[in-house]
Amino acid sequence: MGTVSKLGLAHQALRAAVLEIANARAACLNELPARRRAAAIEMFEHGLRCGLYMGAFAKAVRDCTGLPIEVNNLVFAAVYHDIGKLCVPAELLLAPRQLTADERTIVQSHVTLGRVLARRALRVMRVPEPALRWALEVAALHHERWDGHGYAHALVGRAIPLAARMMAIVDCYDVIVTPRPYKSACSHSHACGIIEAEAGSAFDPSLVEIFLSIEHELELKSSAWCVPQEECVANVEVRQFR
Ligand SMILES: [Fe+2]
Ligand SMILES: [Fe+2]
Q1: What global pTM score does this model have?
Q2: At what angle do helices 129-141 and 110-124 cross, to 10 degrees?
Q3: Domain HD-GYP, which positions (predicted)?
Q4: Domain ranges of the chain
């Protein structure tokens, strides 16, 4: 079997796994008020895509560094990295404009809220300890920057846990290649260019190198992820993900 076929099969298997999680959550989302539901859908779809990218990235980091990385745990952490946004006002998350400084501070609180929420939610789901630990680290620290100018703790370099350093890159990639209420989508190559330019400032340069080494696999995943129009943020009805 050719490399592309293998990648396609692996992609399908991982996509099926994360969409199973999505389906399990759809009933819960339907209980929410419309705007809160729309924000939750955007947060969750972003998490699912990040989970797909993280799967490929985690395997590459494990293979390049020899570190004992449990790929599934990192995929799980990526899916839930923005769970704290469920506690942020939906009006701010869906605002089709630049936020004020005060509004940004409120949105940025999703990392501290996320740690608390992830701990509660994942304990209820009986997530095993190693996966829970990585998920909490990622939820709390994915907006730290390599140069120390991130939030909420301004950690510098390797003081930021590996999983959170990886998540920062994956998060940035998905935000760039998908449309948001305040911006349109940009191309895969544009996203890779920005990530490369931020190596050593926003991101761990050695991780950027590994990320860019699998960029074709990531492009395949991002182009294969097709969210049907009727499931986009503009439509507040939650349907079963396919
Ligand atoms: Fe975030
Ligand atoms: Fe995110």
Answers
A1: 0.81
A2: 160
A3: 21-227
A4: 3-231
| Neighbouring residues of the ion ligand 1, judged by CB less than 5 Å | 82
Please, which residues have CB less than 5 A from ligand 2, an ion?
A: 82, 171
108 CA to middle of ligand 1, Å? 8
Q: Which CATH number fits domain 3-231: 3.40.50.300, 3.40.50.720, 1.10.3210.10, 3.30.1330.40?
A: 1.10.3210.10
pLDDT tens track, the chain, 242 positions: 565 555 555 555 555 555 555 555 555 666 667 777 778 778 888 999 999 999 999 999 999 999 999 999 999 899 989 988 888 888 898 888 889 999 999 999 999 998 888 888 777 777 788 888 899 999 999 999 999 999 999 999 999 999 999 999 999 999 999 988 888 889 999 999 999 999 999 999 999 999 999 999 999 888 876 544 344 333 333 333 33
CA–centroid distance, 107 to ligand 2, in Å, is 11
CB atoms within 10 A of CB 16: 9
CA of 64 relative to ligand 1 center, distance in Å:
27
Cα separation, 139 vs 82, in Å, equals 6
Distance 82 CA to ligand 1 centre (A): 5
Q: Measure 47 CA to ligand 2 centroid, in angstroms.
A: 7
The dihedral formed by the CA atoms of 10, 180, 42 and 71, expressed in degrees to the nearest 10: 30
The alpha carbon dihedral of 1, 55, 88, 208 has a sign of negative
